[in-house]
Design goal:
The protein is α/β, with parallel strands linked by helices. The protein has one domain: Spore Coat Polysaccharide Biosynthesis Protein SpsA, Chain A. A seven-stranded mixed beta sheet has the order 3-2-1-4-6-5-7, sandwiched between helices. The protein is globular and about 50 Å long.
């Protein structure tokens, strides 16, 4: 526990057999109460390795997508009584050594959400981020900061810590099951007025690390722009969208 808060790490996994153990070995000992891995119908032995490592392992019988995987992750973490939940990709792209720092900022109540930013510190390109992804990251982030009224260094990191309240109150079931889930979640958090902090996180791009291709990246970028426009229209009262309506939640993450 950290500051008397139960901390659970969730790993949304798909074909992560080659990098899972290395990721797990770098998790700082003594502070994380539990690690949950949700295997999204991988075609390799991710689930078997996860069980051998002693992780609480859940397997989807069919692939639900990155967003659908996260929904299961958060639901299961809340069932186990998590006060702080951190999403850590098991592909070793983000260093697990920052888990304590991120969890602490949420546990003491300084922020509702903490992001591990690849942009802060200027190491994204040095870590191997493709140039087109770096440029698109910067352009989309600039647009979203203007449209959403925030000042984040990036909206696209997959390294995130959340308070229990955030996961309970956001209508996450309304979000996409695809990659745009991450962006919708941050837009929802800003709509609700949650505080978001960032810390610099070195990142690694290598063959075994998961990454979406150019086509999926373009689809994701268009989804980001759509989410931003929906945010503006909803907040101005011109048109209402279910992803920004907390009262429309289809299930309670605590009871579901």
């Amino acid at each position: 526990m950290i500051h008397n808060k139960k901390v659970i790490v969730v790993m949304p996994a798909y074909n992560a057999e080659q990098t899972l153990e290395q990721t797990y070995r770098d998790v700082p000992p003594g502070f994380i109460d539990e690690i949950i891995l949700v295997d999204d119908a991988s075609r390799d032995n991710t689930a078997e390795l996860s069980r051998r490592l002693g992780l609480r392992t859940i397997v989807h019988p069919k692939n639900l997508g990155y967003g659908g995987n996260q929904k299961t992750c958060y639901r299961e973490a809340l069932k186990l009584g998590a006060d702080v939940v951190i999403m850590l990709h098991p592909d070793y792209q983000y260093t697990p050594k920052l888990l304590i720092a991120m969890a602490s900022l949420v546990a003491i109540g300084l922020y509702d959400i903490v992001l591990g930013s690849r942009i802060l510190g200027g190491g994204a390109l040095k870590g191997g981020m493709p140039l087109y992804k770096y440029i698109s990251n910067r352009v989309l982030t600039l647009i979203q900061n203007i449209m959403l009224g925030a000042k984040l260094s990036e909206y696209h990191t997959g390294y995130r810590a959340f308070s229990r309240r955030v996961l309970m109150e956001l209508p996450l079931e309304e979000n996409s099951n695809d990659f745009i889930f991450d962006n919708q979640m941050l837009a929802q958090a800003l709509m609700c007025g949650y505080t978001i902090g960032e810390i610099s996180c070195p990142t690694k791009y290598f063959k075994e690390a998961s990454s979406i291709n150019l086509t999926r990246s373009i689809i994701y970028g268009l989804g980001v722009l759509m989410t931003s426009m929906q945010f503006v229209l909803h907040k101005s009262g011109i048109k209402k969208y279910r992803i920004f309506s907390t009262e429309c939640r289809k299930l309670s993450f605590e009871e579901g």
